[in-house]
User: Which sequence fits this backbone?
């Protein structure tokens, strides 16, 4: 029915995209070493799944991403609310927030390592630092759109700050929080992988760049595919958790 | 609005904090945290060979090795104290860092000359040697690197004017050459030996052909000042075992090659054996040679804005083991 | 917020900047902060002079600025209609929504070998990758914007019997503007971060390439100076977007 149509659309799109890739790969017009046929990638994919150390690396990256994300969500929402409730502070601080948001966070990796060492905690810190911005910005923008009527209702009931947050702000912020969360989650994954690529000994990013450096391109694509699949899974989980 | 989210947060935060402890092993020996760029190279993996062979353990040294993707990251992590000793980093880069105030000191040479480098073309290319490279594109990794210097010297020797292109690292270079976007690309043995074996590429020049660089130490091992101040004897022992490991690696190559193959699954046993000829033992000497040349290069390629004073040129060294 | 406060706000921002700068300077001199990691203003300001001497300011700045603008514009041209399409076709929305989120969470940057093969080590590759990355937040927010138009507004339209175009121009679009601009802001940010990131990775292009070189040579003061230029780009672009939003929908 409705679901059936969805699946059909997804299937057709997927087949079309894969078909285009395979055609380009086998056309001979491009260097096949860099765009291997799907069969090679599939083979590498299943070979990877049989490697035991894949799962340790997967666990490390997942832990870094999730913990960083959670930290970013909690602090991002709180900071966004604070910014939203103090308009003067918001106008003063917003340029800095926007500027920091556009700084490539990867340059803070040495600072993160200075603070918490070269292992997984530095990647957690980087992930949190990256994701806090979209959440904070989305929540602050959402705060500006809360109906003043609702706020006055809360004030007339003499709500404490915490009551305002839980009873008035949070229900209205559901959409900004969700959209901020979606984007923040993506950033967590990217910055974690990039940090692992630059300095690490464990993690999916490390595995991927190792494959690339040894020009094992099918393995690299297989790992990226695995990362992609897991990202889809985690996003679906996130959607389920935030759907009410 | 529910706060089951809160319980989720609490649960997630509590559980995996045990992971870092689980990764770090218990240590009764002296711990040295190392940064190694380029996982899998013959020369940069000396410490891993020594570690896995137990040579460091015998001397009471425990190694915690982290891999980085290149010189700048290695310098940053060593300068900020994230690691104690960093391996295989460009001499000019270390000079630059030192000159800009990074608390780093060279503790030994790591690689002298550039025998591991070679330039290749596609098998179907009309280019047969450097003499055919007039007006053709020749790749190097980045400005100021050893590939930059060697490629220019090779062109000068052959009396040709090549079109030099910053192609980036080896995998990107390979893609460019094989896609026809670059005529001659660079590689460091045994990278590319799979293609050589399949006769898909041909070597047109080698780094060993350039005498100017033969006696210049282009990569060094370095440490940060704090580690050397606190644990100088540990660093000294480290260098001693490092030299011993090199001796062991070349004495009986069966085990060292086997490990090397494990890190480089793309190449065959024969290719690994051939790669050894690109890494003469003398190149791995701990002595730092031709430092004046490196100082000149640092100035030419702008890693420093003004020459080092003679005091600085001495201060940058903290050679804890005279080596051989 | 009072009008007086609003006019004073930029002064407060600059004031805050000066305070932060002074704090960093003191912290470095007192030894709390390593100058290797955070360069004090006393080193960063002269660094601009050094950079100008080496022609590392105007050309890389314009280079990156230009490419970010193109990437964002292209992403908007593709993302806004696509978001509207998703909002109006439940079947396609259901099909692609999850993919969009997942594509965004994937490190598309790591696909650069693929781009190198097809498009070479050119500006086209850089801009194309940035367009791809900026497309997603713009499309997601456009979809959310058009999906969440208050029904009361649509009902008013219905009762006035407006046609499809009128409904779009007079009801849907104005209602969607705030969320669309949230998406555009994020699009600009991601285009900039990705452009810098790719330039950093493949050592090619404008400010990202220069930052990469300076990082490699451990020239931290000059590196921070170039980073400040990156911030200037973001401030200019975001301020422009803000102005455009105010013009489109005065509040």
Assistant:
């Amino acid at each position: 029915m409705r679901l059936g149509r969805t699946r059909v659309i997804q299937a057709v799109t997927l087949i079309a995209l894969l078909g285009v890739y395979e055609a380009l790969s086998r056309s001979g017009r491009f260097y096949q070493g860099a765009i291997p046929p799907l069969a090679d990638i599939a083979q590498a994919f299943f070979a990877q799944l049989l490697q035991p150390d894949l799962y340790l690396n997967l666990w490390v990256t997942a832990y870094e991403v999730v913990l960083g994300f959670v930290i970013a969500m909690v602090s991002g929402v709180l900071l966004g609310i604070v910014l939203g409730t103090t308009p003067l502070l918001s106008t003063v601080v917003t340029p800095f927030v926007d500027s920091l948001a556009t700084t490539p966070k990867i340059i803070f990796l040495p600072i993160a390592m200075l603070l918490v060492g070269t292992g997984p905690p530095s990647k957690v810190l980087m992930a949190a630092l990256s994701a806090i911005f979209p959440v904070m910005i989305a929540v602050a923008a959402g705060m500006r759109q809360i109906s003043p009527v609702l706020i006055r209702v809360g004030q007339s009931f003499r709500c404490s700050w915490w009551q305002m947050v839980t009873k008035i702000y949070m229900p209205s912020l559901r959409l900004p929080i969700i959209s901020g969360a979606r984007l923040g989650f993506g950033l967590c994954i990217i910055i974690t992988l990039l940090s692992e690529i630059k300095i690490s000994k464990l993690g999916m990013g490390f595995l991927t760049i190792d494959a690339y450096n040894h020009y094992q391109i099918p393995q690299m694509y297989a790992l990226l595919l695995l990362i992609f699949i897991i990202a889809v899974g985690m996003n679906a989980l996130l959607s389920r958790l935030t759907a009410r | 609005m529910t706060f089951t989210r809160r319980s989720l947060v609490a649960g997630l935060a509590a559980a995996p904090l045990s992971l870092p402890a689980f990764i770090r092993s218990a240590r009764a020996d002296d711990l040295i945290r190392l940064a190694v760029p380029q996982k899998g190279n013959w020369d940069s993996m000396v410490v891993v060979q020594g570690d896995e062979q137990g040579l460091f353990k015998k001397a009471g040294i425990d190694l915690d090795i982290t891999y980085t993707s290149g010189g700048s990251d290695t310098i940053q992590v060593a300068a900020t104290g994230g690691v104690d000793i960093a391996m295989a980093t460009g001499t000019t880069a270390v000079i630059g860092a030192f000159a800009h105030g990074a608390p780093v000191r060279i503790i030994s040479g790591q690689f002298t000359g550039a025998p591991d480098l070679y330039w290749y073309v596609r098998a179907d290319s009309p280019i047969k040697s450097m003499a055919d490279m007039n007006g053709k594109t020749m790749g190097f990794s980045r400005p100021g690197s050893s590939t930059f210097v060697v490629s220019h010297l090779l062109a000068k020797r052959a009396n040709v004017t090549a079109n030099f292109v910053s192609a980036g690292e080896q995998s990107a270079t390979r893609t460019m050459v094989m896609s026809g976007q670059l005529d001659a690309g660079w590689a460091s043995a045994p990278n590319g030996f799979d293609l050589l074996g399949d006769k898909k590429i041909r070597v047109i020049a080698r780094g060993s052909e350039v005498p100017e660089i033969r006696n210049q130490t282009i990569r060094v091992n370095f440490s940060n000042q704090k580690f050397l101040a606190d644990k100088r004897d540990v660093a000294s022992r480290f260098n001693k075992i490092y030299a011993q490991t090199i001796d062991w690696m070349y004495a009986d190559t069966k085990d060292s090659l086997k490990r090397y193959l494990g890190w480089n699954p793309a190449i065959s046993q024969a290719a690994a054996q051939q790669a050894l000829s690109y890494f003469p033992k003398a190149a791995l000497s701990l002595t730092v040679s031709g430092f004046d040349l490196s100082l000149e290069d640092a100035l030419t390629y702008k890693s420093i804005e003004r020459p080092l004073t003679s005091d600085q040129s001495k201060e940058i060294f903290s050679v804890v083991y005279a080596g051989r | 917020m009072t009008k007086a406060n609003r006019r004073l706000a930029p002064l407060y921002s600059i004031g805050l900047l000066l305070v932060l700068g002074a704090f960093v300077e003191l912290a470095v001199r007192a030894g709390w902060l390593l100058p290797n990691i955070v360069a004090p203003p006393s080193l960063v300001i002269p660094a601009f002079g050094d950079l100008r001497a080496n022609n590392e300011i105007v050309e890389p700045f314009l280079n990156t600025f230009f490419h970010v603008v193109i990437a964002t514009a292209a992403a908007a041209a593709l993302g806004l209609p696509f978001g509207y399409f998703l909002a109006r076709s439940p079947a396609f929305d259901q099909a692609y929504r999850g993919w969009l989120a997942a594509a965004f969470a994937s490190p598309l940057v790591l696909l650069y070998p693929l781009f190198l093969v097809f498009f070479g080590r050119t500006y086209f590759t850089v801009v194309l990758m940035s367009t791809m990355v900026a497309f997603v937040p713009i499309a997601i927010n456009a979809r959310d914007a058009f999906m969440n138009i208050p029904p009361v507004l649509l009902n008013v339209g219905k009762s006035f019997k407006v046609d499809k175009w009128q409904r779009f121009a007079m009801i849907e679009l104005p209602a969607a503007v705030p969320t669309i601009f949230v998406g555009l802001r994020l699009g600009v940010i991601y285009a900039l971060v990705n452009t810098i990131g790719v330039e950093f990775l493949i050592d090619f292009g404008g400010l990202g390439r220069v930052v990469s070189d300076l990082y490699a040579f451990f020239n931290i003061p000059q590196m921070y100076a170039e980073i400040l230029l990156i911030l200037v780009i973001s401030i200019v672009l975001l301020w422009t977007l803000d102005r455009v939003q105010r013009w489109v929908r005065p509040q």
User: Anything to note?
Assistant: Residues 52-85 of chain A form the longest helix (34 residues). The first strand of chain A starts at residue 199 and ends at 200. Chain A touches chain C through 59 residues (CB under 8 Å). Chain A has a mean pLDDT of 86.
